[in-house]
Design goal:
This protein is of the alpha/beta class and about 230 residues long. The protein has helices at about 40-50, 70-90, 100-105, 145, 165-175, 190-205, 220-230; strands at about 5-10, 15-25, 25-35, 60-65, 95, 110-120, 125-130, 135, 140, 155-160, 180. The protein is globular and about 55 Å long. The N and C termini lie far apart (about 55 Å).
Length: about 230
Amino acid sequence: MAEIRNILACDTSTSTLHIALKCEEGFEERMIAGGFQHSEDLLQEITYILERRNLKVADLDLLVCTRGPGSFTSLRIAMSTFKGFALAREIPLVSVPTLEAIARSYTVPDMLTLAVLDAKKKRYYLGLYRNGEKIGENIDGNAEDILPCIEKEEAIVLTGPDAVKFSSQIRTCLPSLRLITDNIMIRPLGRVLIEMGIRQFEEAGPDDIGTGPVYIRRSDAEEALLAKEKNRQ
């Protein structure tokens, strides 16, 4: 396996664009609160961060992006952009789970970590982890849906952009739960994404080029199509 020296990583699953570059000269990360304008910001930010290190896309040895869950459109923007680089320059690409990256960005040893993203429609994307290792399946739901996975005597760490908002909901359902809420809404993800990407690439190799985002739920367009087909029947 060729030496991995220059790695570009990004996350577009939320309204904040995370982009990071690890190279022989060091590490650089940028976070841009773009209000879901990733289609306008991503290529510009990639160009900027590469030029600061006198690099081009062709100099990259590995590409890493999140695969979801998250904003449907934004996830597709990052993955399609990185797939274009991967195909044009024959650069390996790996995609990593969004909720795991969030959980790994803020952990307390030996405690459960619940990564939280607003999924809209009064629901949340929820991922439960211990020391970075996934417990069960990710959930598209509410506090009631995660309670069966939590022992009442355990303490739990809530983290992610929507942890504070979700904390009131889980406290209502289980007032006795020992809860630590991460009050920092936007934590840097760059180093975590790069570490996860290298590990995944070394263990399993690059993604198949046909790999797509993981949404957990169907998009509004898919729901509308299914409803239309059901009405026809």
